[in-house]
């Protein structure tokens, strides 16, 4: 406001000075011309003041927009830090999951080898034991004086064969149980792999690593 008054006074004085300065060939300007010049200068000053107010409003608007953009940029920086921490945690979990997968794979292979060895050992021992028992029973039956004890030997042979059959059934059941344990171990391994290695990237795509 003070600047406007100073400019107004300067322009008025300049107009008065120009109007009163006599020219060598012209007569002094009438007072009407001085008034018109003063009004024109005042109108120009009013336009300058209006432009100043417009520029000030634009400056405030730009400042508000800059503050808003600064807040948005700060939020983006915060989100970027959160995403970085999340990605680091996911990579750590992925490494742990891979280590667990390798451990489970080694355990499954070890169990499979043990089951195969047990199956071979069980089958070999059972066959050898059965052959030995049958050979003993044949020797008993064909031994001298076995005619009198035929009924007893037949009953004994039948009982032995039934016992061997039960033993074979028990061994078969044990092998089936071992196979079931190995299958359950493989299923747990697959579920653990599915649960830990199914990730979602930052574009929303699913990484499916199921068995």
From TrEMBL:
Endpoints of the signal sequence: 1-19
Keyword match Signal: yes
Lineage: Eukaryota, Metazoa, Chordata, Craniata, Vertebrata
Organism: Synaphobranchus kaupii (Kaup's arrowtooth eel)
Coiled-coil segments: 94-121
Keywords: Coiled coil, Signal
Annotated protein name in UniProt: Uncharacterized protein
């Amino acid at each position: 406001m003070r600047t406007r008054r100073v400019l107004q006074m300067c322009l008025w004085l300049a107009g008065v000075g120009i109007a009163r300065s006599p020219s060598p060939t012209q007569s002094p300007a009438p007072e009407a011309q001085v008034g018109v010049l003063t009004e024109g200068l005042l109108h120009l000053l009013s336009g300058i003041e209006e432009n100043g107010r417009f520029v000030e409003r634009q400056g405030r608007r730009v400042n508000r927009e800059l503050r808003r953009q600064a807040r948005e940029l700060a939020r983006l920086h915060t989100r970027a830090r959160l995403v970085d921490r999340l990605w680091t945690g996911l990579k750590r979990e992925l490494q742990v999951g891979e280590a667990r997968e390798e451990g489970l794979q080694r355990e499954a292979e070890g169990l499979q080898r043990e089951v195969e060895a047990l199956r071979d050992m069980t089958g070999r021992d059972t066959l050898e034991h059965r052959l030995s028992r049958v050979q003993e029973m044949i020797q008993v039956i064909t031994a001298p004086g076995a005619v009198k004890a035929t009924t007893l030997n037949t009953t004994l042979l039948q009982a032995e064969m039934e016992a061997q059959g039960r033993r074979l059934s028990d061994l078969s059941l044990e092998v089936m149980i071992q196979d079931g344990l190995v299958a359950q171990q493989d299923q747990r391994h697959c579920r653990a792999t599915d649960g830990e290695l199914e990730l979602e990237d930052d574009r929303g795509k699913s990484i499916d690593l199921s068995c």
